[in-house]
Amino acid sequence: MMGIRAQQKEKTRRALVDAAFNQLSAERSFSSLSLREVAREANIAPTSFYRHFKDMNELGLTMVDEGGLTLRQMMRKGRQRAEAGGSVIRISVETFMEVLESNPNVFRILLHERSGTSAPFRAAVAREIEHFISELAHYTEATARRSPELARAQAEALVTLVFNAGAAALDMKRVDRKILADRLVIQLRMVAKGAECLQQKMENR
Amino acid sequence: MMGIRAQQKEKTRRALVDAAFNQLSAERSFSSLSLREVAREANIAPTSFYRHFKDMNELGLTMVDEGGLTLRQMMRKGRQRAEAGGSVIRISVETFMEVLESNPNVFRILLHERSGTSAPFRAAVAREIEHFISELAHYTEATARRSPELARAQAEALVTLVFNAGAAALDMKRVDRKILADRLVIQLRMVAKGAECLQQKMENR
DNA sequence: AAATTGAGCGTACATCTGTGCGCCAATTTA
DNA sequence: TAAATTGGCGCACAGATGTACGCTCAATTT
């Protein structure tokens, strides 16, 4: 059991993380947040921030980690739905868009810091996305008898397209998001179909 | 003819733009530059900055415009080379990587501000990239008899993959860039081949 | 030759930032 | 019950930032 003291600490720590997430938006990136702003939003004194995080970077990396968690939950959800049958691509895109919509700021930090100015951040995001890619590559390799290299290239392309669409979808209204999602499905099918063709071509010689 | 006075003005204006470009790096984005830093690097007083730009945003948009110019020059160069024959995809990727290598900071601002926090910036970059996409879509529509919708989706996918690879290539050594470029070529072929298949499928019913 | 213009500078100011220091009060430990 | 720990606070400071204002002086116009 957690002492009343540790509970309170955990509570304000969450308040800090939540405050940071809540300040994110289309026009506000994590790196543009100041320690004081976050502390203000969390209703603590600026100096109290240090009781929880060494600096803003540490807070940010914590947030990226939570993003990774969301990503993995999303994968699980997608896999469950796919088991019920239907177009894997379509189901995956739908799942992605749903999760994106209910956790916009989690994706904001992932998508933005992926190409941000902090090497540790980029590495952390890359690591999370790498999960995605390798899992996908493994799946394709197994179910479609794809060669490892081709499976890898295919998975990368798919993930690139999905995340890119995600970044674009973040600031769209529902209607436009639907159009985007439909186009994304087509693009993913292109990659899948094309990979299949390339695979056959390689086998026939 | 330009008076000696206008010449001098143009000269320090360029100094400002160049100073800003030169400060960009993997760990330094445009939005993290301060007016004073840029002025310092350009060897002018901070307040003199205003003789040339209303604020940092205006400077940034100027830089994005120059980026658009670079992009269009790249397209021309690629088209010329492609006329000589050979794999269009491979030639395009090679051209892209060359231009990327010799103008890293031009691409930095394009690639970063594409998903940045300033709506005007995002719009400006999107406009430049849209050139790319529509030109490519038109080309595919004409030479491969692709339907407009499919051509558009295909072009978008291609451009997404290319620019994404470009962002990743920016901070790589030459060797890794080569590997990346080869994989990119494969991915682009997937899209091209897949689009072809989808097109045929649509026609056969 | 005289008057006007304008690029560039220095000073100044209000505002914001991160963070060191010492205190308090409540919880935890001894 | 006494002592130690620690989350949270206020104060204070140095440094950086954007920008308003007014000056200078060379180029340009009249």
TrEMBL record, chains A, B:
InterPro entries: DesT_TetR_C, DNA-bd_HTH_TetR-type_CS, Homeodomain-like_sf, HTH_TetR, HTH_transcr_repressor_FabR. Residues 11-71 form the HTH tetR-type domain. One of its GO terms (molecular function) is DNA binding. Residues 34-53 bind DNA. Signal peptide: none annotated. SUPFAM superfamilies: Homeodomain-like. The keyword Disulfide bond does not apply. Keywords: DNA-binding, Transcription, Transcription regulation. Gene3D superfamilies: Homeodomain-like, Tetracycline Repressor, domain 2. It comes from the Bacteria. The keyword Transcription regulation applies. This is DNA-binding transcriptional regulator FabR. It comes from Shewanella algidipiscicola.
